[in-house]
Amino acid sequence: MTMTEEVTPTETPKPEATPAPAQPAPVAPATPEPVQLAQPDLKETAEALLSQVPEHLRGTIPDTDPVAQIKWFATAQKSGAFSTGAPTVPETDSGKPTVTPVEPNLDDLPATARMARGYGQ
Q1: What are phi and psi of 50, to 5 degrees?
Q2: Pairwise CA distance, residues 77 & 43, whole Å
Q3: CA-to-CA distance for 117 and 109, rounded, in angstroms?
Q4: Whether the Cβ atoms of residue 66 and residue 45 lie closer than 8 Å to each other
Q5: Phi and psi (nearest 5°) for 27?
Q6: So what's the pLDDT on residue 62?
Q7: Rounded distance, CA 54 to CA 57, Å?
Q8: Count of beta carbons in the 10 Å neighbourhood of residue 46
Q9: Mean pLDDT of 16-29
Q10: More reliable by pLDDT, 4 or 66
């Protein structure tokens, strides 16, 4: 290579951007969906259920849709989070246990033990 030759950087071809597929325009439903119709009722139900939550646990209520709040309430109630007072303990037997002495089988005892037992009687 001589000093008179110029080196030109080679250009890398840029990939052509592919056009994004056209998205169809959203179609408005002719009638409201059943879920949308039930939202006010679900909200009232969730408020009624969540009013039973003790004051010190209200901060744990999720700030989501009413369906999730109702599910949270059902799960928390099953776990016993809202129970008041001491847990119920089943009744126990308070009587003194009876001990019945076990009579050893004389055939299983060694000869010396059988003789010692005979002298003890």
Answers
A1: -75, -15
A2: 19
A3: 10
A4: yes
A5: -100, 125
A6: 83
A7: 6
A8: 21
A9: 60
A10: 66
